[in-house]
Design brief:
Radius of gyration: 33 Å
Helix content: 25-40%
Strand content: 5-15%
Distance between the termini: 95 Å
Number of strands: 12
Largest sheet: 5 strands, antiparallel
Order of helices and strands: HEEEEHEHHHHHHHHEEEHEHEEHEHHH
Structural class: alpha+beta
Number of helices: 16
Strand order of the largest sheet: 4-3-2-1-5
Shape: elongated
């Protein structure tokens, strides 16, 4: 327990005292004029008094061992089920403590045997629980079984082979657990020899495999498995916009709805290209394309972003943010499939004939084109979240909705009612202007107004009022430079 000096408002640092400093247990080796010298094994450190008083926890006896968690952290790490189990273990101990307080330890000794018999444990176990409870409270009752922390008894060489097999299966089709265990046993026998490494039993092998595969999606979605394997190492960064129009995210996604092409009458999949403002989450432009996205579709969305509204038109619920300062486009191989690459847009057959045209127009308007890092969704999380909101809040209520994957697809989707591509784009525009822009988002907050949530339209108004700056094209016709150019000849029958 804590000494009385430690319970008071001041403590004394003595040579030999144990301290909990920067997540490890140290021992005070010397108190110098400039600070405190502490030691952990063969490691010595000298810490200034200021840093030591801010980060060190002083406790001469009851600090946890170096491999254990502090008691406060241990309690917060418990689930509701684990905490309920500890409270059930605490109830008989409270009764014993009350009996000791009323009649002394000698009179309560007989109750220990009776209580242990009722609980189905030995009297020695009950005494051990009581000693831990007196020392650390309810946290002292938590053991490895309660915390579900077990030391693995599986040979480390089997674990290494299992991790190797899981790594090799990242880009393969999803296997079964039984197949992975068989491959691991075969790999262990090939590397170390037959019978050299003891193989775990069936139950132990399945349990250990689940522990090693946790977070990998090894037996789930192949797309999720590849995403986890390809994500960058280190801490994720993010863009922090300070006003509307500073960052505009541009991306394309296939929609989970079939539509009909008005000219050919074909059932076709559709792709949606959107431009979203990172500060307000307002949609600045969108384009629905049949089958796949073309360069003209991307240029059309940029044209919608830059073009000021005509007259007093408010844009049908699409607030005009002005000429953006930065446009963030997908990067890497993913962009080739979606119709644009860093600093350019392309057509399906790969000719980048529009790239100089569009990038030149961006340069004349002062727009920086910034490519997103491949396999890093944190570069454009707002647009990815919008696609999910669109599917869950709107697309699934449309006819010909096919679901996010083939496992979710209904029967005879093509026989249901349908929408033309143009009709579906108009419905999406109406939903964005009337519903999405007016719905409060939990992620749209301001640091000086904690606890308040705003809609994209409200945050746009707040950002515009605070900055008071609107970037417009120097000449209205500059916006038309984003439109795709088609050369035609004049013949005797016309153009």
């Amino acid at each position: 327990m804590l000494e009385w000096e430690q319970i008071m408002s001041s403590i004394e640092i003595r040579v030999g005292a144990n301290v909990w400093f920067e997540g490890a247990l140290w021992q005070v080796d010397e108190v110098t004029g400039r600070g405190v010298r502490i030691r952990k094994g063969a490691t010595m450190r000298e810490v200034g008094v200021g840093a030591f008083s801010e980060a060190a926890v002083i406790n001469t006896e009851e600090l946890p061992a170096e491999s254990e968690d502090p008691l406060g952290i241990l309690i917060t790490a418990l689930t509701d089920k684990q905490l309920a189990k500890l409270k059930a273990m605490e109830e008989p101990l409270l009764s014993l403590l009350q009996a000791e307080a009323e009649g002394g330890e000698a009179s309560a000794r007989a109750l220990y045997a009776e209580t242990a018999r009722k609980l189905g444990i030995s009297e020695r176990t009950l005494w051990r629980r009581m000693a831990a409870y007196k020392t650390s409270g309810i946290a002292g009752l938590a053991d490895s079984r309660t915390m579900q922390k077990y030391d693995s008894r599986v040979d480390p060489r089997w674990d290494a082979a299992c991790v190797q097999v899981l790594d090799a299966a990242v880009y393969a089709s999803t296997p079964t657990r039984d197949a992975v265990i068989r491959r691991v046993n075969a790999e262990v026998a090939r590397v170390h020899g037959e019978g050299v490494v003891p193989a775990p039993g069936k139950t132990a092998a399945y349990r250990r495999l689940n522990e090693l595969a946790k977070g990998r999606h090894s037996f789930g979605s192949g797309r999720g498995r590849r995403s986890v394997a390809e994500r960058p190492e280190g801490v994720y960064g993010r863009l922090n916009p300070s006003y509307p129009g500073e960052y505009v995210l541009l991306d394309t996604t296939p929609l989970d709805v079939f539509a009909m092409e008005p000219v050919t009458g074909r059932w076709v999949p559709t792709e949606l290209t959107v431009a979203i403002d990172l500060f307000s989450r307002c949609i600045l432009g969108l384009r629905l394309s049949p089958v796949s996205t073309k360069s003209g579709d991307v240029a059309n969305v940029l044209f919608q972003v830059v073009r000021p509204p005509a007259g007093d038109d408010a844009g049908d619920g699409f607030p005009y943010h002005g000429v953006p300062k930065n446009v963030l486009v997908p990067g890497g191989e993913e962009a080739l499939d979606r119709g644009c690459v860093p600093s350019t847009v392309v057509v399906d057959h790969g000719k980048q004939y529009v790239s100089d045209h569009v990038i030149g127009a961006c340069a004349r308007l002062g727009i920086n084109v910034q490519p997103a890092i491949p396999h890093k969704p944190t570069d454009k999380p707002a647009v990815e979240r919008f696609f999910r909101t669109l599917r869950e809040s709107f697309l699934q209520h449309l006819p010909a909705y096919k679901g996010p994957d083939v496992y979710s697809r209904g029967k005879d989707i093509e026989d249901q009612a349908y929408l033309l591509v143009t009709e579906m784009e108009q419905l999406i525009r109406e939903w964005v202007g009337t519903v999405y822009h007016g719905t409060k988002h939990s992620s749209l907050q301001l640091p000086d107004l904690p606890g308040m949530f705003f809609s994209p339209a409200e945050l746009f108004d707040i950002g515009r009022a605070r900055t008071g700056v609107l970037r417009l094209p120097a000449r209205p016709e500059l916006a038309y430079e984003f439109l795709q150019v088609h050369w035609r000849t004049i013949q005797h029958y016309g153009v």
